[in-house]
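Entries read sequence, tokenised fold; example below:

***
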Amino acid sequence: MKNTIKILFAFIAFASFSSCEKDDSLAYSTPVGSFKIVTPSNGDAIILSEMTPSNPALSISWTAMDYDVPSVVSYTVQIAKDGTDFAEPIDLGSSNNLSAVFQSADFNLKCLTVGAVPFVQTAINVRVRATSGTVNAQPVYSDSVTYLVTAFGCLNQYAVGQGLTESGWNWNTPRVLLCDNGVLSMTALFANGTNDTFRFFTENGVWDSGRNYLYYENDGYKIVSTLVNANDGDKNFRNVGPAGKYKLTIDSNNKTINVAPRTTTTDAFEPTSNWLVGAATPGGWSWAGNNETELGLVDVGVYEVAIKLTSNEAFRVFLGNNGGDSWDLGSKNYPWYTGQGYTIDSELVNANDGDSNFKYTGPTGVRLFKINTNTKVISID
């Protein structure tokens, strides 16, 4: 019995000694000095293109980071929008080497995610994070450089709210706004009750990513008059036009938000809409692609669109769109409206160009163009 106790005490003593010896051997690494980015240089610029998704977009190299305990060092390249102080950085990728190359498609997506404006040069901050493989090693960050990125495309966004009949204030069935070269669009059923409000979100399921009416108003967007500030505490959107199915577009290139009814099963060509074509409009005298501007019937007898108009240029109102050159589907020029007794805004005159088109004489900019067939007034706000 005594021998057993002696053996037990010996075992405990050995175990305690071994444990202390193991703790003493743990390696705690401490950074020595700092490290920095070698390339690219601060202020370098790149224009990304969807035509070359595999091309190098960011080729970056940096000096080594030293720790007082030898270990493998892992480096992670991070980006953030300029001015955010890396509050919410996004990782591009990691490496145990002192350089990395990132392809255009993935780099473009991540630049958009941190807030790059499509087709506009945006300052993106780049830094490298170093971490040691030893116990309790704290990350160390390099200096940051500013990379001037012109991204393409945009990210899909989302809309929820009671004002969207098929959605409601939950993430079960959010409406998806599909992105195409800076233009977001969705087709949805809109309600028009006092409490029927909705909001846009940049991330699916993330309430904090919301963008309300004030967000767009403060950013200089022109918004079709049937979408108003609900003044509901959250400053959401509310539709005051007739309830129904509409195509909604958010154009970040021209900063406009528009709606147009959808009475057919296809989104392509709406028979109740009119169309604006001409040098004063963004698409010029062309029906190619989406060059024509849809002038939607936003209320009974009222056509309206937020549109960027070019000063001292002409345009015409067309009655139909068949998906191709639709010159022969009927149109209305300046004399037609004056002949019908319309009062026309003073910034619109007869172009006297042979076809007597409209000529816009105001300053180049985004305006609300409206034709009210009830009051016979054509206005620009």
